[in-house]
């Protein structure tokens, strides 16, 4: 006997254990040796991570695809693993050392610190794996990998050495995003732009003649970063700016430093912005770096790695300059203290013309929280331009497609304008760069120290001392190899031969460039094949008001908390039902609760079936049923299966969920079981009809379990376990075949039962729209009904009277006066409402409601038509207004429909 209620907390762990015991998710099962392979590689979460809502969405969608393809008979490998997450993991361990009052990493040294990180990983790392299992992720956990596994490390070393040998990896001095707190370069993804209320300082730079004497002319520049002016090497003006045309080619004296710098013409300067003259500091601004390269201005770095002024002893700074003593006294000042000091010095010299308030975006480290510096350092780079060309061609040729397709354009834009990739990081945790140096500046790149020593001995004619490069590789470097390194490359493994290239990559749109593009480039370059055939990019999960979730806002929703409260199935179905292509998800707890109720409704339906003698019978043949009601239900099930299949094949996850929901809740629970009650519970029913109906209901519950399994695996596996006679050994639902219901569509049955369903639905809608009291029974008149309609009405008269709350059903040649007319599948039905509803009063009420709706739509249209409002308002506010307009438009349409009915009745 089934439990009275479905309790997710009581069954999820048990079902997960059954999957694990049955090796349900293992790739390469013997019985599937001849099956078509299907592979997804998980976007490896950080080993430091915990499950957030983005993970929940991403892994739910992957799991749906994997369970769906597994049920369709394919040999599925969902490859799991975690990322070593260089800076994030190092930060976690350093914080722990500080909290436990142990020596910091520099005190203990590199080797001891790295050992401590490995110990932390063994003890606490990878908690997210267990959290993914709670979500129901059907990965092949026996194949879990880590980006610093021995095998993956070998792949990293080989790719680095090969790319260097091919001239694609090189060392260069360029600007990077520099985190002064962690003292390392970081990727663009680790930089957050923060709106800051600051100032714009206007400084006067004196013009000099050929001898260096001041002419009395000045050029005023505006800057948000006065401290960097000490590194200025030019001032740029627009070539077409008449104000400065005569000054182009002349020189300025840089205040405080007394360096003579040129005035250059460059289109980067915007004549409409500020004074139209822009200070160029190539070592401290990405745009200025490019201007400096175009104009031949050398970069001068005036900050040290901790973002303090670096002046005294700085040969680059002192060259061609005669800094004042007060300027040199700023050496060692923190950048923000130096900013105030420079402004004070400029003001004292009468060169501060103006200070104006200025709100602007300032880059911050997403983990350190400090302001990021564009910083000039020696780093290792990959020349990705030729790699990008191959990735672009693979997409153009259709080897890899993007879903939604519009992301293809973004992919092209990024890769067509790609810059060299900085791959070195000044950290200790990660893949240490396989480069060794000798004391004469020789560089040796090799997969091992022994190989490097052999190179050095050959080059130098004997043994020499070598020092390894202390930097580690950007985490994205090893992640870029993930699709093939996890399958055993560079070894020729059976898994690599069978599952590479992989099939679908499911990931967030925010890492299209950082991860997807780099996997494409590396996969094509290293293996000569695109790493996946389809990239499905999902959007963000926001809060129910459309705001981005953040700890600072306090609106973060914990998926584990929702699983505890509502069950994993409810959370999964919510995310799937809302995952429309290209649209952010506004997560409403009400929706999660609603889909928990959906699970409850299905459970109650199965329990109702059990209590009414519906038992699974292996001899049941759906194609042999005789009852029109059962034929209709089986045909609707076949349609639902086809709709779900089509939607999943097109990655329309929300449409797949909607099709499954519609069949289970509306068709099966609300209509089929309701229409079947007289057969199951009535007196005088033929035994054969009752038995067939019981068999059909049990069969359909089994098909529903299959249909819903990719979306709601725990509930459906539990329903599947409720076996019938002769089915005790049928195994796990996770390995069961997908429903095969082709050929069960029955147009005749659909015409009959569909008419009954539509007629009841239309009567109910009309009653609601016209304010007929809930308890009132009203007559129904079929107008000019043909023989087929009369037969259907007579066959289902009792059901129609009961479900539509009708007092009687009659037939007539014309509709009676004061009747609401309904069109049902080409037939006219009328509800005489005289004496039941005050038609005139109801028309007046509805017209008033229509006026309110039209007024509200007008107000919302005014806002949406205001370009200034659209530019200034937060995205979530604009989205909310659009949703309100859609809701009001839908409400107005229903009001007008009701008015049309009542107006007909009045006439």
UniProtKB/TrEMBL annotation:
<protein>
    <recommendedName>
        <fullName>Valine--tRNA ligase</fullName>
        <ecNumber>6.1.1.9</ecNumber>
    </recommendedName>
</protein>
<dbReference type="Pfam" id="PF08264">
    <property type="entry name" value="Anticodon_1"/>
</dbReference>
<dbReference type="InterPro" id="IPR010978">
    <property type="entry name" value="tRNA-bd_arm"/>
</dbReference>
<dbReference type="InterPro" id="IPR014729">
    <property type="entry name" value="Rossmann-like_a/b/a_fold"/>
</dbReference>
<comment type="function">
    <text>Catalyzes the attachment of valine to tRNA(Val). As ValRS can inadvertently accommodate and process structurally similar amino acids such as threonine, to avoid such errors, it has a 'posttransfer' editing activity that hydrolyzes mischarged Thr-tRNA(Val) in a tRNA-dependent manner.</text>
</comment>
<comment type="similarity">
    <text>Belongs to the class-I aminoacyl-tRNA synthetase family. ValS type 1 subfamily.</text>
</comment>
<keyword id="KW-0963">Cytoplasm</keyword>
<dbReference type="GO" id="GO:0004832">
    <property type="term" value="F:valine-tRNA ligase activity"/>
</dbReference>
<keyword id="KW-0648">Protein biosynthesis</keyword>
<dbReference type="InterPro" id="IPR013155">
    <property type="entry name" value="M/V/L/I-tRNA-synth_anticd-bd"/>
</dbReference>
<feature type="coiled-coil region">
    <location>
        <begin position="836"/>
        <end position="863"/>
    </location>
</feature>
<dbReference type="GO" id="GO:0005524">
    <property type="term" value="F:ATP binding"/>
</dbReference>
<keyword id="KW-0030">Aminoacyl-tRNA synthetase</keyword>
<dbReference type="InterPro" id="IPR037118">
    <property type="entry name" value="Val-tRNA_synth_C_sf"/>
</dbReference>
<feature type="short sequence motif" description="'KMSKS' region">
    <location>
        <begin position="548"/>
        <end position="552"/>
    </location>
</feature>
<keyword id="KW-0067">ATP-binding</keyword>
<feature type="binding site">
    <location>
        <position position="551"/>
    </location>
    <ligand>
        <name>ATP</name>
    </ligand>
</feature>
<dbReference type="GO" id="GO:0006438">
    <property type="term" value="P:valyl-tRNA aminoacylation"/>
</dbReference>
<feature type="domain" description="Valyl-tRNA synthetase tRNA-binding arm">
    <location>
        <begin position="838"/>
        <end position="902"/>
    </location>
</feature>
<dbReference type="InterPro" id="IPR009080">
    <property type="entry name" value="tRNAsynth_Ia_anticodon-bd"/>
</dbReference>
<dbReference type="InterPro" id="IPR001412">
    <property type="entry name" value="aa-tRNA-synth_I_CS"/>
</dbReference>
<dbReference type="InterPro" id="IPR033705">
    <property type="entry name" value="Anticodon_Ia_Val"/>
</dbReference>
<feature type="domain" description="Methionyl/Valyl/Leucyl/Isoleucyl-tRNA synthetase anticodon-binding">
    <location>
        <begin position="630"/>
        <end position="780"/>
    </location>
</feature>
<feature type="short sequence motif" description="'HIGH' region">
    <location>
        <begin position="45"/>
        <end position="55"/>
    </location>
</feature>
<dbReference type="GO" id="GO:0002161">
    <property type="term" value="F:aminoacyl-tRNA deacylase activity"/>
</dbReference>
<dbReference type="InterPro" id="IPR019499">
    <property type="entry name" value="Val-tRNA_synth_tRNA-bd"/>
</dbReference>
<comment type="subunit">
    <text>Monomer.</text>
</comment>
<dbReference type="Pfam" id="PF00133">
    <property type="entry name" value="tRNA-synt_1"/>
</dbReference>
<dbReference type="InterPro" id="IPR002303">
    <property type="entry name" value="Valyl-tRNA_ligase"/>
</dbReference>
<dbReference type="Pfam" id="PF10458">
    <property type="entry name" value="Val_tRNA-synt_C"/>
</dbReference>
<keyword id="KW-0547">Nucleotide-binding</keyword>
<feature type="domain" description="Aminoacyl-tRNA synthetase class Ia">
    <location>
        <begin position="16"/>
        <end position="588"/>
    </location>
</feature>
<keyword id="KW-0175">Coiled coil</keyword>
<dbReference type="GO" id="GO:0005829">
    <property type="term" value="C:cytosol"/>
</dbReference>
<dbReference type="InterPro" id="IPR002300">
    <property type="entry name" value="aa-tRNA-synth_Ia"/>
</dbReference>
<keyword id="KW-0436">Ligase</keyword>
<dbReference type="InterPro" id="IPR009008">
    <property type="entry name" value="Val/Leu/Ile-tRNA-synth_edit"/>
</dbReference>
